[in-house]
Write a structure and sequence with these properties.
The protein is of the alpha/beta class. The protein contains 30 helices and 36 strands. The strands form seven sheets. Strands 1-2-4-3-5-6-7-8 form an eight-stranded mixed beta sheet, sandwiched between helices. A seven-stranded mixed beta sheet has the order 10-9-19-18-20-21-22.
């Protein structure tokens, strides 16, 4: 029980809090007693018209309405935002009573009645404000336009323990000490934030709870968390959870800080099941106070509600287009069915020393895929279930992926190129229900909470199998599915795949494709490169390790670590080509570098084998013409191509080495903006550019203007469906209906060719205007003693100075970063063609893990700013 105390206004001077928002309001509580609330309220629009929408914001424990200050500040003037301090909390009345969940829901209803709130209303809630706001929403369905929830829960998932911090705080011996007698719980809430808020903000959050008597409700709130079946508030929480069934069609936005030690991703997954239509955005790195840790979250709430209002008014917002039904469609496993009796080789696995470890004919691959698909359904894997696939490239990976597709499941493919931290982050974000993998992969899946069907690929000791809780093995799964009916085929619009970007410009993003989009991608590749049944694919590029069967051609991965492209040698490529009679080679620029470096090890027999290759493709990052030329010399009968695309859309365009050479000699190639010519769009792809405004940001819709630099935008049937659980990222990239904004910067010339000039995140905004980095870098890399170059901006946008960082060629590597000597600095400045403030020599260039080719210019810019200011900065 709390000591009675009247409601008051907050003290002046709290950062970000406009005192004009504060007001005290009287309303009857759950028991009919009139109480006084403190709330923040932007009020009705100045013109006296009713608000276009009202946001009802509910905090949790131990925060207060201050949590929503940015939302009040950013809301449009024709909206009303009401952020309450719950009774006993913040600056509202301390009533001297203990309030249960049901009381708080009824309290909120009494307040909104007193305020006269009418529709449309969007509830916005955090922490234990979530169940309270949902309880209110279920009772006010006629007023409701949508719900926004941030790091909250309505149910404790079965088999998962309650959060450690909550269990510890709820322990009878600790509860009064950490929640009431000391400010540990209050101060601990802001201590969870990443990055840590400024001290004055932390103090503002704690201000209403500056004495034990003002923290008694904090203790009571923690005690009211219903962890036990017989807890007094359990029936109310269960009623709220059950009531979500009536809100399943209501627009919902779930915003999440995945580093939250209290409301972890398991609670997000539970809410996604209950609200399957919800838009979701996970802010990587954010913790419990997601609106503090990720300030863009508030902007995203405003954008989401604006879209909601626009749709209500009949105005279209951005988003992915539906995949139309096609009665003549050929599913991804079509070739497996057509070649069901074919004993020719479908997939080859290479062993050491150039030997073939396994050959899998079409007949066997098709049979195994059908049996595995039926086995998955027999084991309870349902259509739409996500399955973490943690299997090295080879026949097993191919069979598992196609079996998931046939079963209607959605493979979540996480490759080792992301590294352990990136793999873990990717799995947590995608939230797969089941896992198929080798033992280390299954261990990783269990560590992020995958608790469904567990299928072991390969061997493991009995002890390891018990520890991993293995349900079955791949052969056992196939045996279970033998002679069972084939699962119903998924529809074109069903989710088919979750893959991940390379993470070269930030945390790797999950990308979702639907079946129809993958089928369109297969057809685009087949058409662009005239692929026939006579072709065979050598995939030295991880994303295409399972591509062959969908194209109806044999395939092999060379003897290499496919997650480390630079491990490809010329001899291992020759062995792989020989094993399948390879005609198509797909590799990243880093793979080509080592291919050329090891060419001296080729025998005459190897060189003869490489003569069957008709097409050499290098993708994943821009490739220098001289490197492509040297690599093409090893496959003398091949045409060398550099397809342009990205995880979200590939192919977009294509260019041959001959076309690159011609482009370099025409006026466009001598354009001081420079860039990489990536050729003409492939059939079925439209390319446009969103031009820069005066500040160097893409402004306005995509245009087909000639010679204008801006953000490259793509439209085609094989563009990805959406970013996974990244609603705000998807909203920004797809804000022009039907178009995907790539994040790349470039231009289209008067011959219809596309030139890529860098990444939007790496554009330099100098006193002389906007500068794209790739042209500068290529001119500097033309110097004989420069291997790689990166042009970055140091300083505030609009005043950035150009800094060029280089690695040396033909000279001993430096041990640590150092300013370039006068001779090299002068030559770099002369070659760059723009004013350069500093030239620094690096021991190595930081590149992405997957392709070993994309330079991390953002990381370099941050490092250069510290280094040039005199700070001791570790080698980037």
């Amino acid at each position: 029980m709390t000591a009675p105390a009247p409601a008051t206004l907050p003290p002046p001077g709290l950062p970000g809090l406009d005192p004009r928002w504060s007001r005290l309001v009287q309303a009857p509580d759950a028991h009919g007693v009139v109480r006084t609330w403190h709330l923040l309220d932007t009020g009705a629009p100045a013109d006296g018209a009713p608000p276009r929408v009202t946001l009802l914001c509910v905090h949790g424990n131990p925060t207060w309405s201050y949590l929503w200050r940015r939302l009040l500040a950013e809301a449009p003037p024709d909206w009303r935002v009401v952020a309450v301090d719950q009774l006993e909390m913040g600056w509202s009345e301390r009533t001297g009573t203990t309030r249960r969940l049901a009381d708080r829901i009824a309290d909120l209803g009494g307040l909104t009645d007193a305020l006269g709130l009418s529709g449309p209303v969007v509830t916005v809630a955090h922490d234990w404000g979530g169940p309270i706001s949902l309880g209110w929403a279920e009772r006010h369905r006629d007023q409701l336009l949508g719900v926004v929830l941030a790091n909250t829960a309505v149910h404790q998932p079965a088999g998962a323990p309650a959060p450690t911090l909550i269990r510890a705080a709820r322990a009878s011996a600790l509860l009064p000490a950490v929640t009431c007698r000391t400010p540990t719980f209050v101060r601990g809430t802001t201590a969870l934030s990443r990055p840590r808020p400024p001290r004055e903000v932390r103090d503002a959050f704690a201000a209403p709870y500056d004495a034990p008597e003002r923290r008694r409700a904090v203790q009571a709130f923690v005690a009211d968390i219903p962890l036990e079946p017989d807890h007094p508030s359990m029936p109310a929480l269960q009623q709220v959870a059950a009531g979500l069934a009536d809100l399943r069609d209501l627009p919902a936005l779930l915003l999440w800080g995945p580093e939250d030690p209290v409301f972890s991703d398991r609670y997000l997954r539970d809410l996604v099941v209950r609200l399957p239509h919800a838009d979701v955005h996970r802010y990587e790195g954010a913790s419990h106070l997601v609106t503090e840790d990720a300030p863009l979250a508030v902007t995203d709430i405003v954008t989401w509600v604006t879209d909601l209002l626009d749709r209500r008014a009949g105005v279209a917002a951005g988003g992915a287009a539906d995949v139309p039904a096609d009665p003549g469609r050929r599913p991804l496993w079509d070739a497996l069915d057509r070649r069901a009796g074919d004993e020719a080789t479908a997939v080859v696995e290479m062993g050491g020393a150039g030997a073939v470890a396994r050959r899998v004919p079409w007949r066997l691959l098709g049979s195994v895929v059908r049996d595995l698909a039926a086995g998955l359904r027999a084991e309870g894997v349902e259509a739409g279930d996500r399955v973490a696939v943690l299997v090295p490239p080879g026949a097993d990976l191919t069979a598992v992926v196609y079996a998931c597709w046939r079963a209607g499941a959605v493979p979540v493919v996480v490759d080792r190129g992301l590294g352990p931290v990136g793999m873990r982050r990717a799995l947590r974000g995608a939230g797969p229900r089941h896992a198929i993998g080798i033992a280390p992969g299954l261990a990783l899946a269990r560590s992020v909470g995958v608790r469904g069907l567990t299928v072991l690929v390969g061997g493991a000791s009995p002890a390891a199998r018990r520890a991993l809780r293995v349900d079955t093995t791949l052969p056992e799964l196939a045996a279970l599915g033998a002679d069972r009916p084939e699962p119903a085929a998924p529809r074109p619009g069903d989710d088919a795949l979750v893959v991940f970007t390379s993470g070269a410009t930030g945390p790797s993003k999950g990308v979702v494709y639907r079946h129809g989009q993958l089928e369109a991608q297969r057809d685009a590749l087949r058409g662009a490169y005239r692929i026939t049944a006579d072709d065979a694919l050598v995939a030295a590029f991880a994303p295409w390790a399972v591509l062959g069967p969908s194209l109806g051609i044999s395939s092999v991965v060379p003897d290499m670590d496919i997650t480390a492209p630079s491990t490809l040698t010329a001899c291992s490529l020759a062995d792989a080509v020989r094993a399948v009679g390879g005609t198509l080679v797909w590799a990243s620029p880093a793979a080509l570098v080592n291919l050329v470096a090891t060419a001296g090890d080729l025998t005459d027999e190897d060189r003869d084998a490489l003569g069957t290759v008709r097409l050499l493709m290098s993708a994943g990052a821009p490739v220098r013409p001289d490197l492509l030329r040297d690599a093409a010399a090893l496959v003398p009968n091949a045409s060398a191509h550099t397809p342009y695309g990205m995880t979200e859309a590939l192919p977009v365009s294509d260019v041959t080495l001959d076309e690159i050479d011609r482009a370099a000699t025409d006026p466009e190639g001598r354009d001081p903006r420079g860039g990489v010519c990536v050729g003409h769009p492939v059939p079925g792809v439209e390319v446009a550019v969103a031009p820069f405004d005066e500040h160097g940001w893409p402004d306005g819709p995509p245009q087909r203007a000639i010679g204008v630099t801006g953000e490259i935008c793509v439209r085609s049937p094989h563009v990805k469906d959406r970013y996974d659980r990244l609603w705000a990222t998807e909203r920004r990239s797809g804000r022009d209906p039907g178009w995907h904004r790539t994040g790349d910067v470039g231009r289209v010339d008067d011959q219809g060719r596309l030139w890529v000039e860098g990444r939007l995140a790496h554009v330099l905004r100098t006193p002389d205007g906007v500068l794209t980095p790739v042209g500068v870098e290529h001119r500097v890399e033309g110097l004989p003693d420069v291997a790689l170059a990166a042009a970055v901006g140091v300083g505030p946008p609009g005043t950035q100075q150009v800094v060029v960082l280089v690695t040396r060629a033909g000279a001993p590597p430096v041990r640590r970063p150092a300013p370039a000597d006068a001779n090299l600095a002068d030559r770099v400045r002369a070659a760059a063609g723009v004013p350069v403030s500093a030239v620094v020599v690096l021991p190595r260039m930081p590149v992405d893990r997957r392709h070993n080719s994309k330079i991390d210019r953002g990381r370099l810019a941050d490092w250069a700013a510290r280094y040039l200011s005199g700070e001791r900065a570790r080698t980037p």
